[in-house]
Amino acid sequence: MKTRYRLVFVLFTTVVIVLTTGIAWKLDFSFGSGIDRGRAPSVPNYIQTRREHEKQSFHRHHRIVIIGSGPTALGAAKRLYDLGQGKNNSVITILEELGKPGGLASSVRDDKGFLWDVGVHVVFSHYTYFDRVLNMAVPEWNYRRRGSFAFMKGSDDTRRFIPYPVQNNIHVMDKVDQQKSLKGLEEITKNPSTRKPNNFDEWLLQKFGEGLTDVFMRKYNRKIWTVDTKEMNSAWVGERVAVPDIEEIKTKIKEVDNGTDAKDSDWGPNRFFRFPKYNGTGGIWESVARMLPSHWFRFHEKVTAINIDRKIITVEAGTGVKTHYSLAYDTLISTAPLDVFTSLLQSNDISLWQMQELASQLVHTHTHIVGIGLTGQLPRILTGKSWVYFPDSDSPFYRVTMFSNYSDDHVPKPGEYWSLMCEIAEPQKSSNRAYWSKESLIKESIQALVLYGFITADMVVSKHYRRLDHGYPVPSLKRDMILDTIQPWLKIKDIYSRGRFGGWRYEVANQDHSFMQGVEAVDKFLSNVPELTYPDPNLANSKKNTDRTIPLDYEFVIAHYNENLDWMKPYANHTLIYTKGNELGPPFQFYGWERLKNVGREAHAYLTHITTYYDRLANVTVFLQADNLKGTCWKSVPVYISNAKKGVPCRINRRRYTEWGNIRFPQLKLDEDKKKNVPLLKANRTLGEVYQDLWGSPPPKQGMPFCWNACFGATKAMIHKHPLEFYQKAQGYVSTYSNQEEAHYIERFWLQILTF
């Protein structure tokens, strides 16, 4: 009997302990009471023991949490998905405070039918991976050539549109400002400074001289950044600011003085851009989100605290009555503003307070978006313009976008309505709250647009407003020191803070950069592949980054000028176009669309593809000209794939090619080339000499078989018969002129390259 009572007592005591512990754990974890009191939530010993066991278990799922759902977050999520994560190897959770993805790249349609973005976003890219994800996500795009200007008052009190970049187009200024700017440029040309600038103002003076810096640079930068240029560093500049060519400027001024039209300079990575036909910038990221498993996303869920010792996030969920829960992670990717994010952290690490103090010293602007929906038609003065900069103080905005020029979908009825979107920068610490109110800024914006003659007040039919607490991440003098301290500290704790404000580097804060920061963070913690974009902005911005691709079984590579491409519609999802013509964009969506210099005929395009993707080629690549298989090509596109797999790249001309000198072209062809204004540039080397240089041995005496018209298919193994250096050397022969004889040499070599 006593034994039975003892057993009952032990069981009862055990139940009480378990229930009590469970209730305490539930309270701590569900309601975050420990976090709210500024300490780590208490975790029962058996939970800790279980977690330690799980950490040591090879088969335990890796828990990845992403805070936010803008471009950076979606870049990370897309990369995880492409790498097969989230199945049996990891658990992925995306926490978004709002009700839809997009973040600072979202869009909204007002009750009058006007669509608005969160500021100006256009798509141009330094990354192949980014391009191809967006191509798959969004089927229809508008392609535009940038038309950007500064609208500013000169010394003669006349306002002018000066093409962007201003420093390359001072010939448009009034004579006083023009000569003042030119004098400063001449002075720095004669006496260039080799001293490293201490701040952005010194950099401006070194690159543009006192005149241009005073006429435009200081005024505009003060307006957009809201701080003095002496309070900013110069490390961020990179490709963001064009350095002028003084000789070109002088030539333009002479042309204007002589009464001739000087061509305006065109510069910058975004001189060509694209924009979705429908649903604005936000539509891009909603489409990317739809490519991912829906159960990864948790909307209307706000992070309120993060215990980085326990790796526990406290989340507030819901839109009405709030609930709270805790979420464990192994790796955390945060796209929240770094100053806000660090304020949420809790730890026993004594250095946490230092990190929070440093993050609080980061500088940012507040941005106000004022959208003006208008009736009627876009005035002639704004036709062909994408956006305009405003350095003068007689308007509140620093930039106005002709938003209806981007897409007809931005207005209720194209042709009857149009729209302007104004961006206004407010200092991080500002006074005069009445001025920065919604009503005041809308009123001031409309008055300035009327003053400039862009609109009349009676044209306004819709007014949109949004304030962004974090508008621009200012590259302050202390920024890099702060980031170089905080980011390594976070990484040690398995946290990657990336994105426009998560990384706080404006120089890599466009949509392509932000997306790839997420992609590269994933590659870093999964495979230890070094990041590029965040740690080395200048290198990332200096080239097209092609090191990540979405693998295809087969791919069509098309050398294009201005030919009709309708015949490739059935294969568009597997087609990469290398265009050398003047079309702004493809007639319909392809897998890829790359713009090249018009040199080296089709050989240059083919060799560009091989040298760029040598280690990442499709299993079969079909190389074709855009002339719809003219000449002796096979007339069925799929035939190239099947025959390449059999080791037959093209329709072979059985007559061996034995003429190793210069090519003897028919006079008819030479005359036709002249008529097209692309006369043949004769080579300094013979066909045999180029063969000797490429293969390292004399050309075969018996000649070589060949195929005409440069249409062929090749497996990866065929192309890899030669090392990358072979193709790079061949490319060097065809990189100077549009119709050079060496390109015809390469056309005759392809069969020899792929099969012998």
TrEMBL record:
GO molecular function: oxidoreductase activity
Taxonomy, superkingdom: Eukaryota
PANTHER family according to UniProt: AMINE OXIDASE DOMAIN-CONTAINING PROTEIN (PTHR43734:SF4), PHYTOENE DESATURASE (PTHR43734)
Organism: Patiria miniata (Bat star)
Domain annotation Amine oxidase: ranges: 76-346
Gene3D superfamilies to which the protein is assigned, alphabetical: FAD/NAD(P)-binding domain
Listed InterPro entries: Amino_oxidase (IPR002937), DUF3431 (IPR021838), FAD/NAD-bd_sf (IPR036188)
Protein name in the entry: Amine oxidase domain-containing protein
Pfam families, per database record: Amino_oxidase (PF01593), DUF3431 (PF11913)
